[in-house]
Design a protein that fits this description.
mainly beta, nine-stranded mixed beta sheet, eight-stranded antiparallel beta sheet, 10 helices
Length: 685
């Protein structure tokens, strides 16, 4: 996968790297993902089977998914025309001894190129694939486990596919396809986007699977100055980005030759201009004109019976891909506003929506899920990357699949360097990590009640002679002078985060050992299962003399506001955006940096509505520019009808997950994150 910039600063994560805004824009076309992106995330998930540790077993069952009822065979790999790809599938007994084949909707969209149309019935999904939009084919859906499966039996038969289950792999062979023409044209401006649009038409002799993938930024070759005394100027224009369109079919050799790049001409040899060095400068040098734009189609090639069309897309534009029939054609529009509006009831109480929101003259693409937590079977829980403790980061798509979540969004901040949390995580009434800096947080219970505010956890260590010592941080990567506490939820061991800490081992409310921490990262200290560690840092090391081995101690813990204590689940992030429909943004008060406050970046958010539903949102770059700043984010959430709202970690961390897929971006552009909020669908009993 493409290496992304850090989404968090090295010490306190403010969620957005300086490089984020350079490269990421909302790219939500009919298909966002590609097999390359998916193979990385799914294959990693397949290799890392869930584990259960003492510290996490009471928080979440990480055992394999139970057998699905009424299923004859199932698996998580698909062989498509000889290429083995990740994708969840199952087969069920049908009528007259026949079996029906079902693909998870994420795999169906990502691997085949099927466009999902709006639907208010979660049991039916209308689709468009080289077919009519006005009279779409409608597929039956079935919710099983953490996925929604579509019955593709008739679709596959009509398309001439051959399907066979082979253990964990569903083997699909589609008819051989010829690509007969590829034409690029310029389209006139539209009222909504008064810019000339580029369009690519790909003609085929029959429908065939296709994928679109976003790649890395394309480095521009620097043309050296003809004057050896003049430095080569650096470009101030953001680089183009690579995109690839991949089709299961063979392009006509004429097309490959037409779009084969020519070898670049050799640069001129620069000879010393001795006369110039001896003569005064004269304004006779020609003024260079603007560089010629890069061709949109960089290359067309055939690799393993697939045709790959490589594009160089200018910053601020993205491909929007669709299909038509009669003739069978792939249409690739290069647009500043590629988001296609959607309103799909994905499951009872779970609705997928996306469209543009206007703030004055600015247009922002927003993708979100509306969740009714009072609907039977829908619950929310925090989730984090590592199965062995709190140290670690992973793609949200991988974390969600390990937890068997049907949906989710990235959560709070973290230190990308040491992969440690920087904010509150509480699950099933147990603190995994404590809050920092009185930042915004969301709390909830299993009855669908939510609470938003700025959260502080106050812990006090009380000795037998009633000495009271404040504990400033709990299982946190935020490091300051004072006393911090680490429990088994952190992991099996604690390794010092600063030099010369003094570590106190507490077991069964008694100090059983005092240890010198030494150098950062040098020694791992076991964390007792029936107690915790206290780390004394900087000036707090003097308190060690007041806490000798054998001392009895107790803990007092409370939250401010106290209402937070009533909720079993908490995720902290910030800043708090809305309370009671009013904007209450105070990023400075929540100790966010000036750079973070001023940043225009991709944003994740979570909020409640007047009807009691929850919305998890991903807001990407505005049309023709960068993402919203914090004030704009608050205004957008207010415009969406939010009552209370919280800003989550964002930038490259922003990831909105549903049923095996990211809805808002390609996985190759999504950074690894520490934690998130998962939505779980409990089966009816």
């Amino acid at each position: 996968m493409v290496k992304m910039p850090n989404c968090c600063q090295s010490e306190i994560s403010d969620g957005y790297a300086k490089g984020d805004r350079k490269f990421f824009r909302a790219t939500v076309s009919s298909i966002l993902l590609t097999t390359l992106c998916l193979t990385t995330t799914y294959a990693t998930n397949a290799q890392e089977s869930p584990k259960t540790t003492k510290s996490t077993s009471r928080l979440i069952s990480q055992s394999p998914a139970p057998p699905l009822p009424g299923v004859a065979s199932s698996g998580n790999q698909i062989s498509l025309n000889g290429r083995t790809l990740p994708g969840t599938w199952l087969q069920r007994p049908g009528k007259s001894g026949q079996v029906t084949t079902h693909l998870s909707d994420g795999a169906f969209r990502q691997l085949i190129g099927v466009n999902f149309l709006n639907s208010s019935n979660s049991a039916k999904q209308p689709i468009q694939w080289f077919s009519s939009v006005t009279k779409p084919q409608v597929l039956a859906t079935k919710l099983l486990g953490a996925y929604r499966y579509l019955d593709i039996t008739n679709f596959a038969q009509t398309s001439g596919w051959q399907i066979q289950a082979n253990g964990n792999i569903l083997v699909i062979a589609t008819p051989k396809t010829q690509i007969t023409n590829i034409v690029q044209s310029q389209e006139p401006p539209e009222a909504s986007t008064p810019l000339q649009q580029s369009r690519i038409l790909v003609d085929l002799d029959r429908p065939t699977p296709w994928q679109v993938a976003q790649g890395s930024a394309i480095a521009k070759p620097q043309t050296p100055s003809s004057d050896p005394d003049t430095p080569t100027p650096k470009s101030t224009v953001p680089p183009n980005r690579q995109w690839t369109i991949t089709l299961d079919g063979i392009a006509d050799p004429v097309l490959i030759e037409r779009y084969t790049p020519q070898a670049p001409a050799a640069p001129p040899t620069l000879l010393p201009n001795l006369l110039k060095q001896l003569s005064p400068a004269t304004p006779t040098q020609p003024i260079p004109g603007p560089p010629a734009p890069e061709p949109l189609i960089q290359k067309v090639e055939v690799v393993k019976n697939q045709t790959i069309i490589s594009l160089s897309v200018p910053f601020g534009l993205s491909p929007q891909v669709s299909t038509v029939d009669n003739p069978n054609r792939l249409i690739i529009n290069i647009r500043p506003d590629p988001l296609e509006e959607r309103d799909i009831t994905w499951a009872p109480g779970l609705r997928w929506r996306q469209h543009y929101l206007n703030l004055g003259t600015e247009r922002f693409p927003v993708v979100w899920l509306e969740v009714n937590p009072r609907k039977f079977g829908l619950t929310l829980k925090p989730m984090w990357a590592s199965p062995d403790g709190l140290v670690g980061i992973a793609p949200l798509i991988q974390t969600a699949q390990r937890y068997l979540a049907v949906a989710g969004i990235n959560g709070g901040y973290f230190n990308r360097n040491n992969k440690l949390p920087l904010g509150a995580i509480r699950r099933d009434s147990q603190w995994l990590s404590g809050p920092i800096l009185n930042r915004g947080a969301i709390a909830w219970n299993n009855s669908g009640q939510f609470y938003f505010g700025r959260l502080t956890l106050e812990e006090t260590l009380i000795t037998a002679n009633d000495q009271r010592l404040p504990i400033l941080f709990l299982n946190s990567g935020y490091v300051q002078s004072g006393i911090a506490r680490y429990t088994s939820a952190w992991g099996s061991t604690y390794t010092p985060l600063t030099d010369n800490e003094i570590i106190l081992v507490v077991e069964k409310d008694q100090i059983t050992n005092q240890l010198p921490g030494g150098k950062v990262g040098a020694t791992a200290v076991p964390i007792p299962q029936d107690g915790y560690l206290l780390t004394l840092r900087a000036n707090a090391t003097t308190a060690a003399s007041q806490l000798p081995i054998g001392s009895a101690v107790s803990l007092y813990s409370t939250t401010t506001p106290a209402d937070f204590s009533r909720y079993p689940h908490i995720i902290g992030a910030g800043p708090l955006l809305l309370q009671n429909r009013q904007i209450v943004l105070d990023a400075k008060g929540e100790k966010f940096s000036n750079a973070f406050i001023a940043e225009k970046a991709i944003r994740s958010g979570i909020c409640t509505t007047p009807t009691g539903t929850l919305m998890i949102t991903a807001t990407h770059n505005r049309v023709g520019g960068y993402g919203p700043n914090l004030t704009e984010h608050a205004q957008l959430m207010q415009q969406m009808g939010c009552v209370d709202a919280l800003n989550l970690d964002g930038g490259s961390s922003t990831s909105l997950y549903l049923g095996g897929q990211l809805l808002d971006r390609s996985p190759s552009t999504a950074a690894r994150v520490h934690n998130g909020i998962g939505i779980f669908l409990q089966p009816r009993k």
